[in-house]
Amino acid sequence: MPQYAAPWALGVQRRGRRYAWARAWVPRDGTRAVAETGATVDTPADPVATLRRRSQILARLLDEDGRVARWPKRYAQKLIVLEHLAAHFEPDTRMTEAQVNELLNSLHSFRDPALLRRWLVEHRLLQRTRDGAAYWLVSTEVAAR
């Protein structure tokens, strides 16, 4: 039997004096089941709508050259931008920090490659050595786990 956590324990946002309550208890395994559709966050009910939504978000955040014009405020939009940036890295290629900065500078216009590099490493889209001398793209099999 799975253990369940209260919605407010999982970071449900507070609006004024009230919490934005979830419709159902959320399992602690991270699937966050939705009661009405039976879908989870990991397996959306309509993948076409999800892709359409992602492309709309990227269209708002990218400039005419296809570079990220601004860093979004919303966490979900940040993840979409990170996946977009990670798609430009070549698999099985080790890069130095300077090479990563050069690639990231060509992909965004707000000139903060350290921010993007940190987010990519923290969200396990890129891996690095302990001293930060080498970076490489995480394989998709490892990232899916």
Description:
It is a single chain. This protein is α+β, with helices and mostly antiparallel strands. The protein folds into two domains: 1-43, no CATH class; 47-144, Orthogonal Bundle (Arc Repressor Mutant, subunit A). Helices cover 37% and strands 10% of the residues. The protein has helices at residues 47-61, 75-86, 97-107, 113-122, 140-144, and strands at residues 4-5, 14-15, 18-19, 26-27, 126-128, 135-137. The strands form three sheets. It has a two-stranded antiparallel ribbon with strand order 1-4. A two-stranded antiparallel sheet has the order 2-3. A two-stranded antiparallel sheet has the order 5-6. A hairpin with a 6-residue loop joins strand 5 (126-128) and strand 6 (135-137). Helix 1 crosses helix 2 and helix 3 crosses helix 4. The radius of gyration is 18 Å and the shape is globular.
Summarize the structure.
The protein is α+β, with helices and mostly antiparallel strands and 145 residues long.
Please name the defining characteristics of this protein.
alpha+beta; Arc Repressor Mutant, subunit A; 2 domains; two-stranded antiparallel sheet; 5 helices
Per CATH, what is the topology of the largest domain?
A: Arc Repressor Mutant, subunit A
The name of the CATH architecture of the largest domain is Orthogonal Bundle
Structural class by SSE content: alpha+beta
Radius of gyration computed on alpha carbons: 18 Å
Low-pLDDT regions: 18-26, 32-41
Helix content: 25-40%
Q: Oligomeric form of this entry? A: single chain
Largest sheet: 2 strands, antiparallel
Number of helices: 5
Count of β-strands: 6
